[in-house]
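Next up, sample data.

:::
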Amino acid sequence: MTDSSTGARSAIDYIAEENSPRFRELKRAHRSFVFPLAVFFLVWYFVYVLLAGWAPEFMAIKLIGDFNVGLLIGLGQFMTTFAITMAYVRFANRRLDPMSSAIRADLEKQEAGA
C-alpha cells in the first residue's frame, strides 16, 4: 500500500485488519452494547413525548406540591442519559479499550517495522 502524500510504502493492510477476527470482535462488542441501549432510550424518549401529547391529564397528576408526573418523567430522561453515559464509559474502559489498545499496538509495531 502506498501513501499518496509521501510516496512511502506502508506495511499495514488496513482492509485486512478491518476484516480480522479481533477487529470484528471489537465491532461486535461495541454494537452489542450500543444498539440495545440506543433502542431502549429512543423508546423511553418517545413514550415521554407521546404521553405529553396524548395523555396530558396523566402527565399533570400532581405528586408533591407542583411537582407532577410529567416533571418526574422529564427528569428521568436526564437521569437516564447520565446513567447510559456512565455505563458506556465503564463498558468501554473495561472491554473496548483493552481490545482497541492491543490492535493499535500491533499496528504501530507493523508501521515501525516498515
User: Anything to note?
Assistant: The mean pLDDT is 92.
